[in-house]
Structure formats: structure tokens, C-alpha cells
């Protein structure tokens, strides 16, 4: 029965070819908000890893799995004072991975929601994704770093205490002068005048 044998041989050949052919995984761009890092893997092998800035307090960078929607070599944010966004890779409406000239902030949350990269790294990623748009996947995970949240809480508490002290100082400055007694020598302390008998009190 030559036909069944031939069919079996063809099937075996197809299986063997599938086993030796390289599996193409495409490009995966992973953003870890907790670590404030972006990594790029090509066909399953990691090629790049860079620091990023994701959303700061009051804003959000959405988690999820996305495909790049459109690219812009030179883009400016109409919403945020025409801020430059070179090498933008938009993946969820107005959210993008793009270059930023505020490189001193990279490695910690600082953006309005986009994912910021050093302009040189953004240019590399832009060129790679441009050549393989259909094969690119963007994965965003994690949350704002715990240390960042603690530091923000400390900063809020510091600002609250400063505002309280400023209000108290303004209240004292508006208060009428108080006078104690009606005779004797006098001395001044701040905005208030005190009258006393004998020498002024020591401090």
C-alpha cells in the first residue's frame, strides 16, 4: 500500500521541519512600573533593558497587553503645554512610549501617564517597532514603587505641617496687640507688647 506510506512519510517530514524551524515570538516590550524598567525581547531573547518614568502621583499608566497603534517621529503634547514627545509609540489612545529630555527623572515615576525613555533609547525602540509593527506586543505591569509612595506621603505631611505653621503665623500677625497691666516698664516680644514690674523675664 504505497499511498498510505507516502502520506505517513510526508507527515513525518512536516513534523521534523516544524521541530527544527525557529519559533518566531516577535518583539515584546515589557514595562515594569514597580521597577521603573522597560525591557525588550526579540524572538524570545532579551535585547535591551532601560530605566523609564511612568505616571507620578495623581496620574496613571494603564496596565495591560497592547499592540502599537501608531507612531510619530516628532510629536508634541497639546494637553501639556506642547511638551516634546520624540519617537512616540502610541499603544492605548493618548498613552505612548516616548523619549523625554527630563533624563534626571528616569528610574522613578514622573510622567502624566506616558512611559518616558532616554531619547537615544527611544530612537532605538522606535526603529525596531517601526520595522515590526504587526509583530510587536507591549505589556505594562506592576504599580508605583513602594518607596515612592512612602516618600510622597512624607512630602505631603511636610507640606501639611508647613501650611499649618504658616496659617498660625498669619493669624498671630493679624491679632491685636495685647497689654498686660497699666504701669511699670515695658519690653517687646514679636508683635505683642508686655508690661511687667521689675526686670524682664529671662529665657
List keywords for this structure.
single chain, 203 residues, alpha+beta, L,D-transpeptidase catalytic domain-like, 2 domains, 5-stranded mixed sheet, 4-stranded mixed sheet, 3 helices, 30% helix
Task: Report, as a whole number of angstroms, the end-to-end distance.
Answer: 115 Å
**What is the general shape?**
elongated
What is the H level of CATH, i.e. the homologous superfamily of the largest domain?
L,D-transpeptidase catalytic domain-like
Strand content: 25-35%
Rg value = 32 Å
Unreliable sequence segments: 18-23, 179-190
CATH class of the largest domain: Mainly Beta
Contiguous helical run count: 3
Give the helix proportion (percent range).
25-40%
**How many discrete structural domains?**
2
Largest sheet: 5 strands, mixed
CATH-defined topology of the largest domain: L,D-transpeptidase catalytic domain-like
Q: Architecture of the largest domain, CATH level 2?
A: Beta Barrel
- Tell how many strands the DSSP assignment holds: 13
Structural class label: alpha+beta
Mean pLDDT: 79
Strand order of the largest sheet: 3-2-1-11-4
- H and E order: HEEEEEEEEEEHEHEE
Model description:
By secondary structure, the chain is of the alpha+beta class. It folds into two domains: 27-144, L,D-transpeptidase catalytic domain-like, CATH 2.40.440; 151-196, no CATH class. It is 30% helix and 29% strand. Strand 2 and strand 3 form a beta hairpin.
Amino acid at each position: 500500500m504505497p499511498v498510505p506510506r507516502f502520506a505517513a512519510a510526508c507527515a513525518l517530514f512536516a513534523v521534523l521541519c516544524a521541530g527544527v524551524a525557529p519559533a518566531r515570538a516577535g518583539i515584546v516590550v515589557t514595562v515594569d512600573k514597580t521597577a521603573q524598567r522597560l525591557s525588550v525581547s526579540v524572538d524570545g531573547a532579551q535585547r535591551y533593558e532601560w530605566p523609564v518614568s511612568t505616571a507620578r502621583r495623581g496620574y496613571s499608566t494603564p496596565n495591560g497587553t497592547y499592540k502599537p497603534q501608531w507612531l510619530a517621529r516628532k510629536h508634541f503634547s497639546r494637553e501639556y503645554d506642547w511638551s516634546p514627545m520624540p519617537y512616540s509609540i502610541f499603544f492605548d489612545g493618548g498613552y505612548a512610549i516616548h523619549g523625554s529630555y527630563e533624563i534626571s527623572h528616569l528610574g522613578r515615576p514622573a510622567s502624566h501617564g506616558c512611559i518616558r525613555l532616554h531619547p537615544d533609547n527611544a530612537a532605538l525602540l522606535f526603529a525596531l517597532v517601526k520595522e515590526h509593527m504587526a509583530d510587536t506586543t507591549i505589556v505594562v505591569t506592576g504599580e508605583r514603587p513602594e518607596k515612592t509612595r512612602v516618600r510622597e506621603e512624607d512630602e505631603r505631611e511636610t507640606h501639611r505641617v508647613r501650611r499649618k505653621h504658616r496659617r498660625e503665623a498669619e493669624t498671630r500677625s493679624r491679632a491685636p496687640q495685647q497689654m498686660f497691666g497699666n504701669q511699670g516698664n515695658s519690653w517687646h516680644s514679636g508683635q505683642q507688647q508686655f508690661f511687667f514690674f521689675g526686670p524682664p523675664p529671662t529665657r
